[in-house]
Amino acid sequence: MTPTLGFSCQADVADAVGAWRAYLSSEKRFSDLTLVAYTRDLSQFLVFLTEYQGAKPSLERLAKVSVADFRAWLSWRAEGGAIAATRNRGLAAVRNFFRWLDRTGRMHNPYIGVVEGPRTKRPLPRPLTVADAGTLLEEAAGLPDAPWVGLRDRALFTLLYGCGLRISEGLALNRNDLPDGAETVRVLGKGSKQRQVPVLPAVHEALRAYLAACPFNPGPGGPIFLGVRGDRLSDSVARKQMQSLRGLLGLPDSATPHALRHSFATHLLGGGADLRAIQDLLGHASLSTTQRYTDVDTEQLLAVYENAHPRARR
């Protein structure tokens, strides 16, 4: 899906947007959803400039957009109901476009680098407890009517929890990526970055049970996780299965496939794992991202303290 930009910019900007989108897709390997979001945010910025300045933006006009203009746009987004996180994402998209214009010699704007977005407090990860994670994996196989589908769900959720994978990473695996008994699996993460993740015996056990019951055989190069028609299992179906399971077990709405990845990291940290080792296992580019799990661990520790210490209950 490519938003139409002609109504809100001059031809030179429209051509630049097309080239920028191609760069994000082919070289930066942005996902389709991120590409659509970035394009939409940039389109809204250009619409604002058209109304604010009374003329369709050209590259010459973009070079002259001031700090005050950028702030006026962010205020306009806020008045329209955009939360801080949405405005920050919009600013990131526009900043990415302007910097790309600069690197490619099309236009230079000296102000985009000094514009600050609204401050937001990044929400802490919401992992499952060890007990809830165990219950979810034990009960996953009993939910669907078709036994092999239940074994598939249990294998998938065990993989996410046992290896700390994103759901997209788990569903992208093919059978030759994870042969039976392999000690590690090579995962292709965000930005096409590869990492090696250890595979627990419990993961192999769950996979063996599922593959033995699965009525389809797509071959060694085919996907591990299949839908009921024999094609690769979709993200939406996996999330729906988790939603049904958490409803049945009375788990909170935060019990999502991604929460299993959070649980993997939090439970490793609670067991004494090194923070940098967890960073490598999760594939985080920055240690600061992984350090959020120390905040979760501290928060849980304080909750235990407040519930257990007699002086905390006064």
UniProtKB/TrEMBL annotation:
Active site per the UniProt annotation: R166, K190, H258, R261, H284, Y293 (o-(3'-phospho-dna)-tyrosine intermediate)
Domain Tyr recombinase span(s) in chain numbering: 123-306
HAMAP family named among the record's database cross-references: Recomb_XerC_XerD (MF_01808)
PANTHER family: PHAGE INTEGRASE-RELATED, TYROSINE RECOMBINASE XERD
Role according to the record: Site-specific tyrosine recombinase, which acts by catalyzing the cutting and rejoining of the recombining DNA molecules. The XerC-XerD complex is essential to convert dimers of the bacterial chromosome into monomers to permit their segregation at cell division. It also contributes to the segregational stability of plasmids.
Keyword Cell division: yes
GO BP: any one term: chromosome segregation
Cellular compartments annotated: Cytoplasm
Family under the similarity heading: Belongs to the 'phage' integrase family. XerC subfamily.
Subunit record text: Forms a cyclic heterotetrameric complex composed of two molecules of XerC and two molecules of XerD.
Any one Pfam family match given in the protein's UniProt record, by short name: Phage_int_SAM_1
Gene that this sequence comes from: xerC
Protein name, UniProt field: Tyrosine recombinase XerC
Gene Ontology CC, one term: cytoplasm
CDD domains (UniProt xref): INT_XerDC_C
Alphabetical list of InterPro entries matching this protein: CB, DNA_brk_join_enz, Integrase-like_cat_sf, Integrase_catalytic, Integrase_recombinase_N, Integrase_SAM-like_N, Tyrosine_recombinase_XerC/XerD, Tyrosine_recombinase_XerCD
Domain Core-binding (CB): 11-102
Entry keyword set: Cell cycle, Cell division, Chromosome partition, Cytoplasm, DNA integration, DNA recombination, DNA-binding
GO MF term (any one): DNA binding
